[in-house]
Amino acid sequence: MLIATTAAVLAVVLHTAAALLAARENYGRRLPTMSGSYPVRPARRVRRVQTVGWILSLVSAVQFGNIYWLSQPWLSVAIAIAVLLFVNGAPSLIVSLAHNYRLSTGAGPDVSPLR
Q1: What was the pLDDT predicted at 95?
Q2: How far is CA 28 from CA 56, 103, 110, in A?
Q3: Measured between alpha carbons, how far is 114 from 29 in angstroms, rounded to an integer?
Q4: Residue 43 CB neighbours (<10 A)
């Protein structure tokens, strides 16, 4: 359980960092909310961080699902899917919504442009 929790937390941190880097690279442009491509192609650094986050989220989903696999396999599958959706989807969605909101209201930059 400790491995699953640690992997999930680390994956959320990495996905949030990747989403912030992608928002910084797309300064002044709207980001896709749920799916779609970014206006500016993400850098290799962003893709590497996302890949490591995906691997860690798979490890955490398997570990969380393994707890109930022998007694309740459908619950195990549902837990694994929920972990994958939360860990991989929530950070990017929150950063994209905040970035697009600040662009639409003119509240100012949410991240500084790259130098």
Answers
A1: 87
A2: 31, 7, 10
A3: 14
A4: 15
* 35: three-class secondary structure by DSSP: coil
Rounded-to-integer distance, Cα 8 and Cα 63, Å: 10
This model's pTM is above 0.85: no
Q: How many CB atoms lie within 10 A of CB 110?
A: 16
DSSP H helices, the chain, are 2-25, 44-66, 73-105
Supply the pLDDT for residue 108: 58
Closest-CA residue to 98 (of 82, 81, 83, 111): 111
Question: What CA–CA distance (Å, rounded) separates 64 from 42?
Answer: 31
In this structure, are residues 64 and 83 in contact, taking their beta carbons and an 8 Å threshold?
A: yes
pLDDT of 74-101, one tens digit each?
999 999 999 999 999 898 888 888 888 8
Give the amino acid at 86: F
Residue with tokens 């941190």: 13
d(CA 88, CA 90): 6
